[in-house]
Design goal:
This protein is 41% helix and 19% strand. The protein has 8 helices and 9 strands. The strands form 2 sheets. It has a 7-stranded parallel beta sheet, with helices on both faces. The mean pLDDT is 94.
């Protein structure tokens, strides 16, 4: 089984509900690359159509993969080498299809309304276990645009904490998601 993670910067919502392209952050690159490596992802795709944002991400990655950072911290080099920067989700899916010989099953994440083909984590673990190629897509800003959510094969249920507050960073949500899907220690979730 191969799985990929993607961090989508467009199309996502801003606080006002408008569709935007969000900015790439240094923390997201480092933390999600380390997460991807820890849980055995094949590749971590950073999806952003803005060339200045792509250039920024490429400079950061270059520093850690082949620049001074590669010699300074080999563990970081190993994780950061998983990153691929692409302009669109379609390019990402095409690269995976070319590499794997099939289109990945797309699981989107969404902390908002009940949109798309919603699945709980118990069912999602079963789907992942019997699927050869999976792409787990995380959104930035205030979430992935509805048009894209409805095109995904599945949409994971939101992560619900113990309070009414529900605005996790994408890094935190991704860590919880991958642990629930891939950790042998994850407890089965109750059906929602």
């Amino acid at each position: 089984m191969s799985f990929y993670i993607g961090l989508l910067h467009y199309p996502v919502y801003n606080k006002g509900g408008e569709i935007i392209a969000s900015a790439i952050t240094n923390l997201d690159l480092h933390d999600l690359a380390r997460l991807a490596k820890t849980y055995g992802a094949t590749r971590f795709y950073v999806i952003n159509p803005l060339t200045d944002q792509q250039d920024l991400a490429k400079r950061i990655c270059q520093h850690w993969v082949s620049g001074y950072g590669a010699h300074y911290n080999k563990d970081r080099q190993e994780a950061m080498s998983l990153i691929s920067i692409v302009p669109t989700l379609e390019v990402c899916i095409g690269e995976i299809r070319d590499s794997e010989g099939e289109t990945p099953v797309l699981m989107a994440t969404d902390a908002g309304k009940d949109r798309g083909k919603r699945v709980n984590y118990t069912l999602a673990r079963e789907i992942v276990a019997c699927t050869r190629v999976v792409m787990i897509l995380f959104g930035t800003g205030w979430g992935i645009a509805e048009g894209l959510i409805t095109k995904a094969d599945y949409c994971l249920e939101p992560i619900i904490g113990v309070s009414r507050y529900n605005h996790l960073s994408v890094r935190t949500a991704a860590a919880i998601t991958l642990d629930r899907l891939f950790s042998p220690f994850a407890r089965p979730q109750k059906d929602s």
